[in-house]
Amino acid sequence: MIRLRVIAGAEWRYWLRSRLVLGSALLMAGLLLATTAVTTLRMQGEAAERTHHQDKAEAAFLAQPARHPHRMVHYGHYVFRTPTPLAGFDPGLDPVTGQSIFLEGHRQNTPMFAPSGASADLGGFSWLSPAMVYQLFGPLLVILLGHGLIAREREAGTLATLLAQGAPGRLLLAGKAAALLSVIVLMSLPLALSAALAVRDGDPPLAAVALVGVYLLYLSIWGALALLASALLRRRTAVLAALATLWVVLTLVLPAVAVSATSNAAPMAGKLETDLVMLSDLRKLGDGYNVNDPAFARLRAELLAEHGVQRVEDLPVNLRGLVAQASEQKLTDTLNTYARAQMAAETRQAIVLASHGWFTPLLAVADASRALAGTDLAHHHRFLQEAEALRFAFVQGLNRVHAEKLSFSDDIRRSSDAQAEARTRVDASHWRLLDRFVFEPDAAGSRLARSQSQWLMLCAWFAVLVGAGAWVGGRLKP
Amino acid sequence: MGRRTVEAMSARSASASVWSALRREAAFLARDRSAWAWWLVVLFLSVLAVSAGLNEVHRQKATIAHLVEADRAERMAVLKTRKEWSAVYHSFHLTYDPPSEFAFAALGRRDDAAWKHRVRMLALEGQIHERDAGHPVLALVGRFDFAFFAAFVLPLVLIVLLHGLRAGERVAGRHDLLVATAAGDSGRLWRLRAGLRATVVFSAAVLPLVVAAGLSGTAAPTLLAACALLFAYVLFWTLVCAVLAAWQQTAEVILAALVALWILLGVVVPAAGRIAIDRTVPMPSGADIVMTQREAVNAGWDLPKANTMAAFVERHPQWAAYTAVERPFEWKWYFAFQQVGDQKAQALSEAYTDGRMERDRLAGWLALIAPPVLLERALQVLARTDVRASLAYEARVRDFHASLREFYYPKLFRDDRLEPAALEGLPEFSPRAAGR
Prior knowledge:
- The structure holds two protein chains of two kinds.
- By secondary structure, chain A is mostly helical.
- Chain A is built from 20 helices and three strands.
């Protein structure tokens, strides 16, 4: 143990003397602090703005005057997805997904206004976040610190001395690894700070801890790669060039290639395409505006029989409202079937992409990071589902008012008779049936569960590399 | 006279020595197995990039072909089941932006901006912001297209290849000998070595691009411009590498400095620039546009009909004589307040479009100090996948929507019956404006 500490301590003294190491560490720290400050402020601003818009939309709905309830079905409502506090560290899909949806009767609209659509276009890296700094540039600092661990001793001829003095290769490697690991822990302090702030603002502590953990594991994988290369290759410049090449391949090339491969392997139809297929299904459901549509003949016959009357006008309820309710129900079933299929297709594609994490730890850590920060695809899908649940609830609530508070004879004449039209307006107090929309991020448990396979991938990478390190350590030669 | 002959002779011998040096270095390079390996790696990556791009473009074209068919069938079905203006109300029309012949090289905004819509003759502001865009995770991670490969990966290949040019010889102990024996100026030797390696990289990168451009029918000027841009870009990084490689430092310091420069130019400057530009050019929030439009359209139901028709006539004075609305519901009044809804949101909507245009203009200027972004944006301009192309498509959707209104308004206001024959001459969306 003491010898381990001596080896690690010697490495630290070397790093502290090296201007290259100190300069790079300072640059990295500066980059991390700057992106953390900027991204946190930006996401807090977004959260405040979206909450404000949400309140405004709700107030606007409640402030509508007395009118025909179906008018409110089309007046509709807006909901906004507010980001989690951890989104200040990893905004994830937030910039590339629409943040608000217009909810109205008979339709499921797409989310609108992705921030990337309005911002200055300066390439994908211009959306630099602390998470990206860790994913892309954390490994570079680890490489710079770690490439010389063994190769430097070998070049200086001290490796032979160390081994000859009886320091076993494995112990030497373990000492060097301990030194590098202490740097990695130090590197993750800004992340730990972000995570602590997010916990203060309401994110679950377990998710925040797991987020720090997953980055520690990721950077440790790079540390192990650096140490291995340093032990295997003879010259320091060769080690550095090899590691730099590996970094280009694993963090820049492979993830992007995986995206191209995924869109080939698991192609997905867009919403317009599936909507067109769906529309022909929807036509079979009947027209909810037409009480004489044969699709609603049974409903009509049953109602007449139930109330023992002959004419629709004599029913105690408004048939139009009931037809609207029945038709919205059938329509929504179909819409949801297609929406679920679309989300399943998106999830399938995301899983195919994620499976490339076995080849590059970057994809694995990025997926896990988004899941833990609450900015992944599953979160976006839940936003869509909750928006749809709210849509269905208020539309059906309004249809119930339509059925119970309006008379059928006024309702059918309202387009031609101004007095009948006036009688079809219901009091504004009915609009209070709209529920408040609050998008709650997932609990820690489900976030962890979604990052399970990524943990597995990263652990497998780490285990293989540690195993290789132990093997190389046993055979270390000057 | 004599002096001139001597000068000519020395010039000839100098050029001969350049040739012999070139032949010698080329022979060195040809025997250098790692140079061949790099040539193959770059070639492989470039093939990967262009073939992924070709695939994606092919898929997008197939999607469009399928959508055009399905959209027409759907409209026919609507016209069969609905009558008169209810049919118009329910008729959607497909608009789309087909990929250009060079889009395979730079897919740009096509990954996260919508390039297909279905619109109808209701208020457009409620429809045009719908986005049937691609998969968000794929858009976030980013595709391996040629533009990304050339702008971000290629410089790193050059950096790895060229950073140790002198330091490597220094370590090997040959540096001073090489400098001393180089005929004439010794700088030429390093320029030659760096130039040859860069040529190798450039040729491997450009070859698949040229082949793919031939396959997809890219116009020669577009391809030439792309090749020239790529050449200039490789030259830039070669010079940067050569300048830093001449620094009296170890190879690792030079490599670290070059990678730091890559991060500065490719990541830090664009990231800081994007934030600065977004701050400088304020824009209305999208939510305000659609909510303004919604309020205006819905207010139409409650406002006195004369108010709506008066606001409508401001833009369409030719229908002033036909604006009397007698019944509680008439289609011309309904479509009129849809139009008025767009009119009310117009200022905000234009500010949103102008803001995006202005942000893009500034981004173009900022790219001048961030060469990777400059190349990526330039390739996207050639491929018509940039922000401007995306805005131009949006403008074509607006024009098409306006032409739908122009087509229907005479029938609507003269109270014509909408027989199927009347629908002949219905405007069709034309995917490319003339001249582009």
